[in-house]
Amino acid sequence: MFYGRIIKITEYRKKVEEQLIQVGINSVDELKKVGAKAAWLKIQEIDESACINRLMALEGAIEGVKKTMLSDEVKADLKEFYQWNKK
Predict the structure, then answer these.
(1) I need a labelling partner for 6 at 20 to 30 A (CA). Which of 15, 48, 63, 67 fits?
(2) Within 13 Å and on the Cβ side, how many CA atoms surround 61?
(3) 36 and 78 in contact (C-beta within 8 Å)?
């Protein structure tokens, strides 16, 4: 598997990577091209429990930081997106 290659900085690493691979995202470059929001929507299609923390972890992986280090603007944007798209 690709553990640690796609998501390096997240407490969900193994589960998120498995889900990314399931939805056809196999590298960091692919994740960056797709974006955190679109990747999260794909994950939500296979796992309705996909939460805001997973969305933030994806964005953190793209930015190369822990989700807690995302800017307040990014966090607010992701929270709004999550509210509109959660099942």
Answers:
(1) 48
(2) 33
(3) yes
pTM of the model: 0.86
Task: Please state the φ and ψ torsions of residue 12, each to the nearest 5 degrees.
Answer: -100, 15
Number of residues that this document lists for the chain? 87
- Please list the pLDDT of the chain residue by residue as tens digits (87 residues): 344 555 554 555 778 888 999 999 988 889 999 999 999 999 999 999 999 999 998 999 898 888 899 999 999 999 999 999 998
Q: Which of 27, 12, 26, 59 is nearest to 40 (CA)?
A: 59
Classify residue 20 as exposed, middle or buried by CB count within 10 Å of its CB (0-12, 13-18, 19+).
buried
Half-sphere exposure of 79 (CA within 13 A, CB side): 8
Query: Which amino acid is present at 11?
Result: E
* Phi, psi angles (nearest 5°) of residue 6: -95, -55
